[in-house]
Amino acid sequence: MASARISSTPPVHFTFSSPAPPFLHNLSHSLANNFSCSNRRQPRTRFLSLKSQATAEKKAPLDNRMLVFVPPHPLIKHWVSVLRNEETPCPIFKNAMAELGRLLMYEASRDWLPTISGEIQSPLGPATVEFIDPREPVAVVPILRAGLVLAEHAASILPATKTYHLGISRNEETLEASVYLNKLPDKFPAGTRVFIVDPMLATGGTIMAAIDMIKDRGVANQHIKVVSAVTCPPALQKLSEKYPGLHVYAGIIDATLTDKGMIIPGLGDAGDRSYGT
Predict the structure, then answer these.
(1) How far are the Cα atoms of 8, 62, 242, 250, 263 from residue 237, in angstroms, in the given order?
(2) Residue 63 — very low, low, confident or very high, per pLDDT cuts 50/70/90?
């Protein structure tokens, strides 16, 4: 797996399949002054192993930078391609978004969910087993409307979760975000892990408003993961500057935005294309 590290403070770390997409070599103009990219192949399992075995002393630097993951799974590339196609009909688009969300949430939950170990009796004898700990709270926060579709399979991926809906609209002229529905609790239980699900990270205004609301309710950056179908440098730059320790999982990173804040080439308006309105 190739990796690229931005040398700004805090830096952004990308993981993607080798070779790197061509536009990533130009991200220095949007994300940092200095950009280096390594095309050496590194097995995914090795990267995850290094993360899980990090000592307390080595975790501090990692906690001070935002990480962005683009999992190199062929099914993720497939569903992104289906979503991009302007001829994809609404029902297929909606299904593709849900399937992409399933894969991204699976990847985002790797090595992050709390577990408990014990022993049970199988039909042929005792077995040592490991379960997701239902006592540790996990929350999913879809950003309406299209976030509902991307998070459709969250319950089948993440056992013992609660879903809190958050409606945020963007003014098409000013690109400012405004909240029209807030079902978040007044305070999240201590230690809650939160998945924020928003299909498009474009200007960054919507996702930053959501993160701020969740942080105000007691959740640290390191306990938040953002799941998105498509993102781009302007949003990632803002997130990296404001939320060190945040993790972002995306289907793909596109190069730029239109003057109206739409991702190019992107996939259009995810809400309109999901619901046909």
Answers:
(1) 10, 17, 9, 15, 15
(2) low
Handedness of CA 71, 76, 82, 83 (dihedral sign): negative
* Phi, psi angles (nearest 5°) of residue 179: -90, 125
Confidence (pTM): 0.77
CB 262 within 8 A of CB 273: no
Q: In three state form, how does the secondary structure of 82-115 look?
A: HHHCCCCCHHHHHHHHHHHHHHHHHHHCCCCCCE
Give the number of other Cβ atoms within 10 Å of residue 183's Cβ: 11
Contact call for residues 83 and 272 (beta carbons, < 8 A):
no
Give 202-233 pLDDT, tens digit per residue. Answer: 999 999 999 999 999 999 999 999 999 999 99
Task: Give the chain's count of helices (H) and strands (E).
Answer: 10, 16
- Where helices occur in 109-232 by DSSP H, the ranges are 146-150, 154-157, 205-215
Question: Two tokens at 104?
Answer: 């991204």
